From TrEMBL:
Protein name: Amine oxidase
Transmembrane region(s): 7-27
Stretches with biased composition (Basic and acidic residues): 74-84
Keyword Transmembrane helix: yes
Keyword Zinc among UniProt keywords: no
Species in which this protein is naturally found: Arachis duranensis
Length: 737
């Protein structure tokens, strides 16, 4: 999140190279070294990863700047949609490209950018009614485009070739998600400036060592921002390390007009700040192992003697254990999970839990108000495209053996499709955890020990938004729980400083962070990830119920006890009743219930959102970044379902003014009781960097759960069998030579 795509080419090639290198190092493709012998059967032990590979690369689909010959991937040329929610196919992208190129709106202008092209999902009722074998509802595409410096939102009907231009898009502020080519395209602009070149050489950096990032400039209601799309370019030196982020050219900021591709101004305030030496910042295994082998444990992997237990039908429909859902890649959201259903063990019926869930927006404000830092308040989904930044996953390290890999197919700025290979993985995870257990102690004379192992299904993506890596997991448990988990890793955005020891820092000087190494400060920042959760618990019409846990004091003489806790239920009538700030000393449970579906004993069926470790934004609500990211003002919101309210920061987030956020919609205070409603949850992190985060951060994770509450009649995994010794193989490695 934080900063950005540097020389796109550079970063991409690094990523691709890394993936290949690591794959080579770790794939069990050197059978002459180590064999696994299994007492159960040996065939499965040598089974390969289910990584999709094709025999020949496809020349039609090419990711910009990436040589397709270095990436193995599946052919997608002949993909056809099977489900109303299936993403646009290569053929459909090509058709949209042709329709738009010939349309008078685009034909008349010499230059335009298609910023996003994605499926416009059919109306929810149509999708819910649709059954396999039915004809698909009309296929349509939503397009955001920049034409003559203005934002546009269009819909293309693939059946009729009709294009409709939504005039409303000129009413809201902001610009569409940057196209990859736009992010890359601005990086050469500073080179047009003699002043920039002079500064770079004065700082002792060779032009050939320059690595620059396109940094979204936010919006601060300044005259310079009016009627133009701006971006800030900051640079690093990649001399002697791939970890150029640790060598900032501090204080140098080039303000660039993104559409005219010209320098607006240069601010150069760090001339006396040395560039950190970058020694020992290279994190690559190939470099680390030169200093000795640091293996702390023996090789470990998950063995599945009978193979994995999930299937992916027609490319997108995932079925595992008692779960079924539709899964797809999206350029803006990353992963979209739809029509999530769980099978009821009592009735065998597939019951609806969630119509759609995805990461709607991110907000990453840095806590340094000075010239070269104040604007760093990233909104990664709407500005950079969370899915666009999701790099290919690394088999055996990002996802275990037997994982299934799904590609993303996205549109380049001219509308032609390209491939984001192995962007999402699906796998079963067994971490030695327990699903439920009980053993009887000697107090009773019953000899009982019953334990069930916990196996989950994980859907994963890792977005590397320049320096930061976000690991996004959706974890499905057999007991009906869904865990949404975010892992943060990657590299800090650091600030150059003249100090190389804390004893040089005057006591009155505040560093805005932690001195991590000589001449480098890790700046304090927050991460917020806002989820769109269109829960449909046993049907679309639901209510949001706050179950407040309150202290009740007993009456004098009523009980030897002075106090106890009680659960006070309140159903939210309107949106403002459901604007929730979490409070440790005034706790509540948050239930999404279906008031018209009751259990045998009469409780309304429900799912609850269960927060865990999280953080709230403490910025002033009138601070421009906070106004733009007003969706982080509460941790929970509930809005009536509205097809055009899916992006928490608004349709156009880049340089937006905060006029189209979840806060604005929710303030309409519409009725939400017993209606089709959407729950929004924001997971937050405060990050005060520490030395362990240098030069690359060990993963920090947090999560929240969607947990059944009176949804099932009883424990839904009661009938789960335990592990039996004979079901599990024992594999032993031996040297084959
Ligand atoms: C700045 O340096 C680059 C790289 O050496 C060069 O291509 C460019 O022409 C220079 N710009 C100016 C204005 O001199
Ligand atoms: C749906 O959302 C759009 C965008 O916020 C808004 O203009 C419209 O009024 C909303 N419709 C309803 C019924 O709330």
């Amino acid at each position: 999140m934080e900063s950005r795509k540097s020389l796109q080419f550079l970063v991409l090639s690094i990523c691709v190279t890394l993936v290949l290198v690591v794959t080579w190092v770790h794939l069990p493709s050197s059978p002459n070294k180590v064999f696994l012998d299994c007492t159960l059967s040996s065939a499965w032990c040598s089974s390969k990863n289910r990584i999709q590979s094709s025999t020949k690369p496809n020349n039609l689909i090419k990711k910009p700047q990436q040589s397709s010959s270095t990436t193995q991937h599946q052919q997608h040329d002949s993909d056809v949609p099977h489900h109303p929610l299936d993403p646009l196919t290569v053929q459909e992208f090509n058709k949209i490209h042709a329709i738009l190129a010939a349309h008078p709106f685009f034909e008349s202008v010499s230059k335009y950018t298609l910023n996003t092209v994605s499926l416009e999902e059919p109306d929810k009722e149509l999708v819910i009614k649709w059954k396999r074998g039915d004809p698909l509802p009309a296929r349509k595409a939503s397009v955001t485009a920049m034409v003559k410096g203005k934002s546009h939102f269009l819909t293309v009907d693939l059946n009729t070739d009709e294009v409709s231009i939504d005039e409303k898009s000129s009413v809201v502020s902001g610009y569409p998600t940057m196209a990859m080519e736009e992010m890359v395209g601005v990086l050469d602009v500073p080179l047009k400036s003699i002043e920039f070149n002079r500064t770079i050489s004065q700082r002792g950096v060779n032009m050939g060592d320059l690595a620059c990032l396109p940094i979204s400039s936010g919006w601060y209601d300044l005259p310079v921002e009016e009627n133009r799309r701006l971006i800030k370019v900051q640079c690093y030196s990649k001399k002697d390390t791939v970890n150029f982020y640790m060598k900032p050219i501090e204080g140098l900021t080039v303000l660039v007009d993104m559409d005219k591709k010209e320098v607006v101004s240069i601010s150069d305030n760090g001339r006396d700040i040395p560039i950190a030496n970058g020694i020992n910042t290279d994190y690559r295994y190939s470099v680390q192992k030169l200093n000795g082998d640091f293996r702390l444990f023996n090789p470990i992997s998950l063995e599945q003697p009978k193979g994995p237990s999930f299937t992916v039908e027609d490319g997108h429909l995932v079925k595992w254990a008692n779960w079924e859902f539709h899964l797809k890649a999206d350029a803006r959201a990353g992963i979209i999970i739809s029509q999530v259903k769980v099978r009821d063990p009592e009735t065998s019926e597939l019951r609806s839990v969630m119509y759609k869930g995805f990461t709607s927006e991110l907000f990453v404000p840095y806590m340094d108000p000075t010239d070269a830092w104040y604007f760093k308040t990233y909104m990664d989904a709407g500005e950079y495209g969370f899915g666009l930044q999701a790099m290919p996953l690394d088999p055996l390290n990002d996802c275990p053996r037997n994982a299934y890999y799904m590609d993303g197919v996205f549109a380049a700025a001219d509308g032609t499709p390209y491939l984001q290979p192995n962007m999402i993985c699906v796998f079963e995870s067994y971490a030695g955890d327990i699903a439920w257990r009980h053993s009887e102690c000697p107090i009773t004379d019953l000899q009982v020990t019953e334990v069930r192992p916990k196996v989950n299904l994980v859907v994963r993506m890792a977005a590397a938004v320049a320096n930061y890596d976000y690991i996004i997991d959706w974890e499905f448990q057999t007991d009906g729980l869904i865990r949404a988990k975010v892992g943060l890793s990657g590299i800090l955005m650091v600030k150059g400083t003249t100090y190389d020891h804390m004893n040089q820092v005057p006591s009155q000087e505040y560093l805005y962070g932690t001195l991590l190494s000589e001449n480098i400060i890790g700046v304090i920042h927050d991460h917020f990830i806002t989820y769109y959760l269109d829960l449909d618990v046993d049907g679309s019409d639901n209510s949001f119920m706050k179950v407040n846990i309150k202290k009740q004091e007993t009456l004098p003489g009523e009980s030897p006890r002075k106090s106890y806790l009680k659960a006070v239920k309140n159903v939210a009538k309107t949106e403002k009743d459901a604007q929730i700030k979490l409070k440790l000393y005034d706790p509540s449970e948050f239930h999404m219930i279906n008031p018209s579906k009751k259990t045998r004993v009469g409780n309304p069926v429900g799912y609850k959102v269960v927060p865990s470790g999280t953080a709230a934004s403490l910025l002033d609500p009138e601070d421009p970044p906070q106004k733009r990211a007003a969706f982080t003002n509460n941790q929970i919101w509930v809005t009536p379902y509205n097809k055009s309210e899916q992006w928490a920061g608004g349709l156009f987030v880049y340089q937006s003014e905060g006029d189209d956020t979840l806060q604005v919609w929710s303030n309409r205070d519409r009725p939400i009781e017993n209606k089709d409603i959407v729950l929004w949850y924001t997971l937050g992190f405060h990050h005060i960097p520490c030395q362990e985060d240098y030069p690359i951060m060990p993963t920090v994770s947090s999560s929240f759960d969607l947990k059944p509450v009176n949804f099932f009649e009883r424990n839904p995994v009661l009938k789960l069998p335990p592990n039996f010794k004979d079901d599990l193989p024992v594999c032993k490695a031996h040297d084959s030579s």
